[in-house]
């Protein structure tokens, strides 16, 4: 069946998508609530919900017993057994998770590596982990895709990783490799762009139309933009590379890399060094920094805050957002003295542009990239719930 604008089939598919997207983004809700939010009539909503249940994309639950006003309305939720794999390859680890259509992470694993994994090694690792999980934690799951959040430039048109310098990847066909290794459709994008999308939908940027997001990871600093409520990717999908900007550093003593870019100066490895760690996940590093009373730790955090403040001020002056969100180790840098960071940013921006700006840390924490990658993997299914996606079930349901 072809979707041709105003045909019955086209309208029906859009309405199916509307209902599925609603319970995906907002969580379980009554049929009556869906009717009110979509503007569709009650019988149409009942038909759409029944079809989503038949497709295995939604579940109906008994009405809330505390709701005694009017006729009880069944509660509709996204089926949690429909899941996507989310993957974030980094220089020191490959993090994977399974994220349900209900937005919950059912299993997560950080697999440490002793060298930057190649695209082929990444694809093999994804397949091996998938196989292990579906024999255990995901034995009831229906896997519908893989989302890969890559710290580098990813071409929007075909998911080709044009350049991921810290991973040593150039023109890597990661999507094709993962699809061949897993038999699942894959979506590839920049990790920070995925993080920005996740925070906009579910986190600190929920309901905010204009925001700037900066992500700090093992491979450096990336960013994402939301303007007028829409993600901005640029011509090729490479927008948001804040880490490659050259920061203005007022105090020469703050400079650590002559001629370096932002991610050379504001760097996770420098934070690991001052607390004596060779590697750590985000919560471990944040806890180590917070627990340390060493003057060199406080000094390094203050230095990175000063340089980060200039980068954020430049973004505010150019883009005029209402919100700046910081994720990864940048959230840790900010939280070390958020008031100091805000004051430093305000001192370097046009006063009118900074009047309504808030600076927040990512509300989704270390889950932001996983959720963002899963959103990319689930996007086709949510846009057209009747689409003939490749799906994978390891074992039959009991």
UniProtKB/TrEMBL annotation:
Record key words, sorted: Kinase, Transferase
Key word Nuclease present: no
SUPFAM superfamilies according to UniProt: Actin-like ATPase domain (SSF53067), Winged helix' DNA-binding domain (SSF46785)
Domain of life: Bacteria
UniProt GO MF annotations: kinase activity
UniProt xrefs under InterPro entries: ATPase_NBD (IPR043129), ROK (IPR000600), WH-like_DNA-bd_sf (IPR036388), WH_DNA-bd_sf (IPR036390)
Transmembrane intervals: none
Family (UniProt): Belongs to the ROK (NagC/XylR) family.
PANTHER family assigned to the protein according to its UniProt record, in alphabetical order: BIFUNCTIONAL UDP-N-ACETYLGLUCOSAMINE 2-EPIMERASE_N-ACETYLMANNOSAMINE KINASE, ROK (REPRESSOR, ORF, KINASE) FAMILY
Protein name as it appears in the record: Sugar kinase
Organism, scientific name: Agromyces bauzanensis
